[in-house]
Amino acid sequence: MKMAMIVAMDENGFIGRGNRLPWKLASDMARFKRLTEGGGFNSVIMGRKTWDSLPDLFRPLPERVNIVMSRDTGWLAEGAETALYEGRAIELAFAEGSEECWVIGGAQVYEMFLDRVDEIHLTTVHTKDSGDIRFPEWNRSEWTEEIVENLNSNDQNECSSTYSVWTRI
Q1: Is residue 147 exposed (0-12), middle (13-18) or buried (19+ Cβ within 10 Å)?
Q2: Which residues partner with 163 through β-bridges?
């Protein structure tokens, strides 16, 4: 099973503000949906705050197994599997027959899984200091970057951005 991470961050590493994305990027949301749904049966792993931040219409994220990391052993939500630790989240994805497992945030969950993924799909949003939650520190020298797409801001994307795929060396 492929393990990957998908994240959007500004140039200073901020990924969120007040449990929300700090920018509106329709192209990035479409890419997120396309990649995490994939051509097969995929899972997404997220923290409980990320789960809570999803609009009701998209909770659970359709066409994907939704695995929510929570320290609360009694936490339950319709359409979500709960995992207390990383290994259990991976077991759940594997048991569901997932071809790909995508780590989708937030910051604590990204930090938990940084050593377990082989790819990071990164959208760099060309703005600075737009949030109050940062992506964890990671050693970029252990990864290679392939820039896939550069986009300018427009009516549906309030900031320009660069989409790249980082692969562990």
Answers
A1: exposed
A2: 123, 149
Give all domains of the chain, ordered by start, each with its CATH number: 2-168 (3.40.430.10)
φ, ψ for residue 14 (rounded to 5)? -80, 135
Query: pLDDT digits over 43-77, tens only?
Result: 999 999 999 999 999 999 999 999 999 999 999 99
Strand order in the sheet with 100-105: 80-83, 64-69, 42-47, 100-105, 2-10, 119-125, 161-168, 143-151
Using DSSP's 3-state secondary structure scheme, residue 135 falls into coil
Other beta carbons within 10 Å of 111: 13
Predicted TM-score of the model (pTM): 0.96
DSSP state of 57: G
φ, ψ at 134 (rounded to 5°): -105, 150
Radius of gyration of the chain (CA): 15
- Hey, what amino acid is at 52? D
